[in-house]
Amino acid sequence: MKGRNYQSSDTVSADTQRYLKTLSVLYVEDEKDTRILVKEYLNRFTGDLIVAANGEEGLHAYLKYSPDIIITDIQMPKMDGLAMVREMRANGTNVPVIILTAFDQVDYLMNSINIGINKYVVKPINGSMLHDALLECTKKIMDEDQANSLRRKQISQLIDAERSLNGSVEKFIDVFEHAPVIMTISSINNGRCLKANKRFLEVSGFCSEEIIGKNLVDAGWFTQVDFMQLAEIDATNGPISNLELTCQTKKGDQRRLSYTSHTILLNGKECLLSIALDIADQQRNGQKTVISQRLESVGRLAGGVAHDFNNKLTVIMGYAELAKKKITDTRCIEDCLKEVIKAAEYSRGIAAQLSAVSKHQVISSRVVDVNVLVSNAQKTLRPFLKKDVHTIFLPCKDLWPVKIDPVQIDQILMNLLLNANDALPGGGTLEIETANCAIPETGPELSRYSPGDYVRVTVNDNGVGIDSKILAHVFESYFTTKGIGKGSGLGLSIVKDIVSRNGGFIDVESQLGVGTTFTVFLPRSMPANRMREQPEIRESKGSGSIVLVEDDEKVLEMTSTALELSGYSVSKCLTPFEAISLCEQAGLKPNLIVADVVMPDMNGKELLERIRTFHAEVKILFKSGYASELRGVPETGGYMNTIIQKPVDISELYKKIHAIMNT
Fold this sequence. Notes:
Helices cover 43% and strands 21% of the residues. It has 20 helices and 22 strands.
């Protein structure tokens, strides 16, 4: 046997050599002299060595000992080497196989690649080649072991994320149950009530046992005609609003109600989500129009949130299951995690949209590239546009920056693009264009627009157009030309409000049969007197002591791990009282406290005041998900308090902490 004094290759690490010593090897060879010689050689650098004289013995030894690597001759009596490997593969093994052959049978081996041969060595056996083949197989095993360990950790994280999002479903049910309006979920097929909230029980006089699982028509709440009208209109025209129906309570009293309904999926079955307000109450309060339109918005939000969160939960749970099944495929695990992150980011966007509509959003303006935001929005909204609507994006090179909350750009584009989509019933072209626009102090534009530098975003469609008689009303609240349930009349008024609040303006031009053009002007972030650009804060290693206060254990663990990885010393506290005790009794003097504005038992302002009684120089970073939480938040030292919006982006958290620590 050649190469008996072979030294290990420099390209193979000492770790691989040591790992090979721990592995068991099955060696199958019918020639006795060769078997003895190779056995002696293998004993020098492998772990347990199992030897067999033919394919049948080799197969029995494999089933009995489950070796880590197999070395086998091809041509042997009773059962050849390839037949033996086929039998092993049929049992589901992916153990590395090294083939030994007396001939340079490359074509033969390539034709057998489907049985999973990893390496081959030509006889007479060269020790260097055999040793190299063993080390390559060992490296493959080491990589798989390491990858499997990482996958187990990743799958654990996926399961935690799945459980966390399932909690949002519970919150939705809680909102449904305690909503101040009548809400029911019924089967479209048979009209049976699957769930009714407290307000329904109060108004109708029924108890849960009398209504859940029962047909709402049989119970007397609806007439057969009214229920069919509610369900059929929804099935035919989509979500509806302001459908007036007469319902009868348990006592026989009649109540005239304004109904909004949406079709939703519940446990895979199509159901009817119904929301109603008492018309008499609206008339008594003199707010019939406002309340009914808000009811429509609530209904649309409820249906949309249920739909979007169901979709994203499906994505996360589905990719978690795929990750479990693809335990041996590292690339697939990475792809699954990327999709989970995308789903989580989209869900965060849904929460931001809800906050904005409910007036609770924390506005987080920053300098942005509108081209990037338009491109992202175009991709996000593509599934909501008709298949025969062709979108074109014409970005301006060297577009000026704009200071705005990115979520507000998303809201503007969502409303304008979906409106344009509705204006293209038979398909067509939807064009988005960005441009730099300088409006002079004198000229024809002066009477319409304020002079200055602007970024112009134009959304143009070649749809049905808008009649000149109603064009002047399109930005009015609750004004809509769409059918029942097709629009709240709030979309364009929201767009105008957002643009105005950011110092810009919006214009519209339209012609029947030609199309419509909406033009948004947003002020340039740094006009003539350009402010000195702030250096970008990179995610470099930080230093300093941080007290992290968070009542959610999962969020606490995740955030503390992220901060520790970035170099900070972190003290974790589940309650404000733990933080106070840590600073007062244990004598800890942190550089920074990171805490929610609103917490059980004590808010962030009170926590800061308590700790500053014995540590006056401490700084604080508040976390908040609602604008209303920020009322009364104090200044923190010589600079305005710093707020980070929830859900917290880790990269943004690093930047905020870096800025505070270096102030």
